[in-house]
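Contributing new records

If you add data, match the layout below exactly. Sequence lines come first and carry their own label; structure lines follow with theirs. Keep one chain per record. Anything else will be rejected by the validation script.
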Amino acid sequence: MTVPSESLVKSVGQLIKDVYGREVGYIVSVNTEVDASVTEVAIARDSTIMVVDPSRFKLEGDTLVIIPEWKAETQKVTSSLDKIRRKLKALEELYNRGEIDRSDYEEMKRKLNSESNKLKESVSKLKSTLKNRLSEIDEQLMKIERTLISLKIGYLSAEIDERAYKSSLEQLKKIKESYIQEKDDIRKTLDKLDSMDKENVTELKPVTPVNLTPEPVQQGEAKKPEIPSVVSVKVLNTL
């Protein structure tokens, strides 16, 4: 669901988080067209500016959050693939019912299959991106574990006081949980993309359309009488 432009504009100056609860930065600018539609959103993080497409935002209740780029791309690609599959199914149905001639059917199917193949290339690239992201997350989780060990050693050796230890421990746990959630989300997404890959829409084969309209008899052409079937009878000798 698209976030209303008013909600984005009102969020200028606010801290924005992603869907996993991690702070992304502050919204510092929202660019709009004459019709008030939003074209891009600028987010400041530390000393950098990140320009984000408005489609990456969503509302969770009254809270505006941002979804990862890979997730936004996944939603876009899977939605397009689903539309093509539904169109192909409708096309097959019309052809099988004899409501569209073969030349139009083949031309429309060729175009839909061409679009489908392009999207499959996008799916392949997306899967590669997701696998790279999984590697990045695993690396971050390893760093978090090492940091946790270092923190605990510092606390047990009395180098870090209890207040600082508990505060740091809570932050590290939140960060770790956010990465675990994203990792699970990516794995489910990869499973979904793999499942869609197995659905080969290009092999949908229509049956020969049935013409339910009787052929008209040509003028001057007599209707041929039906020839009755010959039935063989075997006579049994009962004497």
